[in-house]
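User: Can you recover a sequence for this backbone? Please restate the input before giving your answer.

Assistant: Of course. Working from this structure:
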C-alpha cells in the first residue's frame, strides 16, 4: 500500500478540488481508517508475544475492509456536529484509500471491497512499492501538507452531549471491535492470506503458498530463512538472498517449514516505515492542535 504521506497528499488534494472548504481534519483522518487495524496489529505483536498472530492478521484484514471502515466512519459521525457530512468524508476517503492500496503489487494481499458478502481480495497490482514514482509522490505530498497546514480550521467538531449519540457511538464501536471474530472462519475457508494452508502444518508439503514482504532473518545457510506473519521461520530453497530487507515469495512447500521458490521479489528495508510514521504523527498533531485550541476557547468563555 502507498505510505501514509502519499495518502494524505493524494486524498487531501482531491478532496480540496471537490470542495474547497472541506474539513481537512476529517479528510486526513479518513486516510488512516483502513490502516488503523494494521497499526494495532504491529503494536500487539510487539507487546503480546504469545498472541495468536494468524487470528490477529485475519482480524486486521476484516477491520480494514470497506464494510468495517464504514462502521468506524459511522461511529465517528455519530458524535460529530455535522454527522452526515463527516460520514461522507470518512466513508469516501476510506474507499479511495482502499482503491489506492489495490494499485500496488502485494502478493496474496489486497482490499476487501465487497465484504461481508464476498471476501475475495481486490488487487490491481500495477506497481511495486519500490517504483521510483512513490518517493517522488512522498516528497510532493509532504510539501502539500506543509502548505495546507496553516489553512486548516480548528472549529468545534463534536456535537453537544446527547445520550442518543453516545449510545449510537458505543454500539457501533462494539460492533467494530467484536464482530470481526465471526467472519474469521469464512476467511480461513477461503484461504485468505493462505491461512488454511498454513493452519495444517503436517499437510503443507505439496501445497502452493505466497508470502508478502516477509523479513529476512538468516542468509548464512544454503536455505535462507524468512519470518512469515504467523511468527514462524520458513526456509527457502533454490534462492540466494542479501541480508536485511524483506521478500515476497511464491512457491510450493517441500517440507512443513521449507518452500521451493518459484518467484521472488526483494524489498529494501524501511521503505514505507518512516513516511508512514511521519504521516501518523502529523495526523495526531493536527487533532491535538484542535483539542488544545478548543480547550483554550472554552476556558476563555468561562
Amino acid at each position: 500500500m502507498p505510505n501514509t504521506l502519499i495518502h494524505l497528499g493524494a486524498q487531501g488534494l482531491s478532496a480540496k478540488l471537490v470542495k474547497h472548504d472541506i474539513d481537512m481534519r476529517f479528510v486526513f483522518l479518513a486516510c488512516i481508517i483502513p490502516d488503523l487495524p494494521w497499526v494495532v496489529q504491529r503494536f500487539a505483536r510487539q507487546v503480546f508475544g504469545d498472541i495468536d498472530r494468524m487470528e490477529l492478521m485475519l482480524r486486521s484484514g476484516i477491520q480494514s475492509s470497506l464494510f468495517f471502515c464504514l462502521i468506524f466512519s459511522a461511529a465517528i459521525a455519530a458524535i460529530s456536529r455535522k454527522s452526515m457530512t463527516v460520514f461522507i468524508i470518512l466513508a469516501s476517503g476510506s474507499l479511495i484509500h482502499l482503491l489506492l492500496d489495490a494499485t500496488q503489487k502485494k502478493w496474496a494481499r489486497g482490499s476487501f471491497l465487497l465484504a461481508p458478502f464476498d471476501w475475495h481480495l481486490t488487487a490491481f497490482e500495477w506497481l511495486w512499492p519500490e517504483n521510483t514514482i512513490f518517493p517522488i509522490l512522498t516528497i510532493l505530498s509532504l510539501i502539500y501538507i506543509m502548505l495546507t497546514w496553516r489553512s486548516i480550521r480548528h472549529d468545534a467538531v463534536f456535537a453537544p452531549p446527547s445520550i442518543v449519540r453516545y449510545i449510537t457511538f458505543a454500539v457501533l464501536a462494539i460492533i467494530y471491535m467484536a464482530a470481526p471474530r465471526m467472519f474469521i472462519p469464512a476467511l480461513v475457508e477461503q484461504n485468505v492470506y493462505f491461512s488454511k494452508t498454513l493452519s495444517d502444518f503436517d499437510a503443507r508439503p505439496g501445497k502452493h503458498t505466497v508470502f508478502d514482504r516477509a523479513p529476512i532473518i538468516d542468509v548464512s545457510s544454503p536455505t535462507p530463512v524468512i519470518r512469515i506473519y504467523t511468527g514462524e521461520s520458513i526456509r527457502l530453497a533454490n534462492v540466494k538472498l542479501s541480508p536485511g530487507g524483506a521478500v515476497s515469495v511464491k512457491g510450493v512447500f517441500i517440507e512443513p517449514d521449507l518452500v521451493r521458490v518459484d518467484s521472488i521479489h526483494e524489498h529494501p528495508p524501511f521503505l514505507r516505515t518512516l513516511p508512514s510514521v511521519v504521516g501518523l504523527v502529523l495526523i495526531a498533531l493536527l487533532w491535538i492542535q484542535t483539542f488544545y485550541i478548543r480547550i483554550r476557547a472554552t476556558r476563555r468563555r468561562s
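That completes the design. The mean pLDDT is 95.
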